[in-house]
């Protein structure tokens, strides 16, 4: 463990509670910036470098921007804008494990940490295989190939099941999975026939993972199927040669591959026709529309967007009454943050406006982010990256009136989309509109008139 500590330590991060246990400059607590002291253009004074995160929060529970503007560069300040301030309650700061999605440590995630490059490559391969549309039998063959689990002659000799490890086709080189499916001279002849005599250099020179990904993601849909079927047929023909002494010549194998591709294409077309007859409308039979809240309630609809290479985020929300009338709306310009964090910021700002304006009606919050709603209804692990923001929302939502959070489809949330897009155009970070804007009039009328949409409209 001591030897591996240099690889482990950069993957440990603090999650904000009250911010008193975390050193602002020396500890890792801001995602993407392991130690803020290394990003300061000048040396910090002794009393400054020892301060905690809580020391940089004002009495109004906002970041002390006047002080921080003199200490941090613009890119970090932009990132800090989307980070919630510590909350003044008994919740303590906690450590989290960056490698896992939920922040909890596991042996599997530690292995990913130690062998990051290989795991990252494997994840790309397995994700590509998972998305490929084709027979499950062929997909299973891909899984085994990617895992180097094919029982090649190298593996058979190692287990005492074969006298030699040479390729049974060419008898020239040891039989690895890549040799059996691509590099053998006999197999190259098959690929050459299928590619009409022109095999590109990167087809032969790439490693196993790159080879699979590049061919399963080609724009030519027919080639993706040919490639997959060829992998399966080559391995079947190889097994027939070893176990049944049945030799299939390359031309016969090419014919078999093309015939099987035609059968699969025909089967999928028939299946698609059958499904459309059974299911009817491809968008589904249910219509989706915005529903007004019951009498005595108001509804907060939320949306978010993340644009550009810098991952600049924006959010927007609209509050309406039981008749569908516009009460207030807001766009908000966030810094750099994830889609989930942007959605949670929308809910936070919406509830803060409701509290500041003194509304006494029951509150319904609707979002098309199912994960955000799940976290608000069921809570999330303290080590999750969104935990500090969720804690702030829960603290803000501690009001007398009832609060209900529910998921809706995007088709019932269209009016907020226009408000969210405004967040990228406004000069100020945050704006509140007490009168509706001309750009959202049509969407507001659509909601009020109860116009319905098909899913994926």
Automatic annotation (TrEMBL):
Annotated ranges, domain Reverse transcriptase zinc-binding: 105-191
Superkingdom of the source species: Eukaryota
Matching InterPro entries: RNase_H-like, RNase_H-like_dom_plant, RNaseH-like_sf, RNaseH_domain, RNaseH_sf, RVT-Znf
Pfam families per record: RVT_3, zf-RVT
Molecular function terms from GO: nucleic acid binding; RNA-DNA hybrid ribonuclease activity
Occurrences of domain RNase H type-1 (ranges): 301-421
PANTHER family in the cross-refs: OS05G0353850 PROTEIN (PTHR47723), POLYNUCLEOTIDYL TRANSFERASE, RIBONUCLEASE H-LIKE SUPERFAMILY PROTEIN (PTHR47723:SF19)
Protein's name in the database: Ribonuclease H protein At1g65750 family
Lineage: Eukaryota, Viridiplantae, Streptophyta, Embryophyta, Tracheophyta
């Amino acid at each position: 463990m001591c030897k591996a500590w240099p690889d482990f330590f950069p993957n440990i991060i603090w999650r904000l509670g009250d911010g008193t246990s975390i050193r602002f400059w020396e500890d890792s607590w801001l995602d993407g910036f392991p130690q803020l002291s290394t990003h300061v253009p000048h040396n910090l004074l002794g009393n400054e470098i020892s301060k905690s995160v809580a020391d940089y929060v004002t009495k109004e529970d906002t970041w002390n921007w006047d002080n921080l503007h003199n200490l941090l560069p613009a890119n970090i300040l932009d990132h800090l804008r989307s980070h919630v301030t510590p909350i003044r309650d008994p919740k303590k700061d906690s450590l989290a494990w960056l490698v896992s999605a939920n922040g909890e440590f596991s042996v599997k995630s530690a292995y990913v940490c130690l062998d990051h490059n290989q795991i990252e490559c494997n994840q790309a391969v397995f994700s590509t295989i998972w998305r490929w549309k084709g027979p499950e039998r062929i997909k299973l063959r891909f899984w085994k190939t990617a895992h180097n689990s094919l029982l090649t002659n190298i593996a058979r000799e190692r287990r005492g099941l074969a006298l030699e490890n040479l390729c049974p086709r060419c008898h020239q080189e040891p039989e690895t999975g890549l040799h059996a499916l691509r590099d053998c001279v006999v197999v190259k002849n098959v690929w050459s026939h299928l590619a009409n005599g022109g095999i590109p250099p990167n087809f032969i020179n790439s490693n196993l993972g790159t080879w699979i990904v590049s061919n399963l993601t080609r724009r030519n849909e027919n080639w993706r199927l040919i490639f997959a079927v060829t992998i399966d047929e080559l391995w079947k023909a190889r097994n027939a040669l070893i176990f049944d002494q049945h030799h299939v010549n390359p031309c016969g194998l090419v014919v078999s591959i093309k015939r099987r591709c035609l059968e699969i294409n025909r089967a999928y077309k028939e299946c698609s026709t059958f499904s459309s007859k059974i299911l009817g409308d491809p968008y589904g039979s249910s219509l989706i529309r915005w529903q007004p809240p019951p009498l005595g309630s108001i509804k907060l609809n939320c949306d978010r967007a993340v644009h550009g290479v810098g991952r600049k985020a924006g959010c927007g929300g609209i509050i309406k009454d039981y008749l569908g009338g516009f009460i207030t709306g807001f766009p908000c310009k966030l810094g750099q943050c994830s889609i989930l964090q942007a959605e949670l910021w929308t809910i936070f700002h919406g509830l803060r406006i409701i509290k500041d304006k003194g509304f006494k009606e029951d509150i319904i919050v609707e979002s098309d982010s199912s994960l955000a709603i799940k976290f608000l209804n069921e809570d999330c692990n303290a080590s999750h990256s969104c935990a500090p923001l969720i804690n702030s929302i829960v603290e803000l939502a501690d009001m007398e009136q009832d609060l209900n959070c529910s998921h809706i489809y995007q088709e019932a949330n269209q009016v907020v989309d226009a408000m969210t897009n405004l967040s990228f155009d406004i000069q100020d970070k945050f704006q509140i509109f007490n009168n509706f804007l001309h750009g959202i009039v049509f969407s507001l009328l659509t909601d009020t008139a109860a116009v319905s949409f098909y899913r994926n409209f």
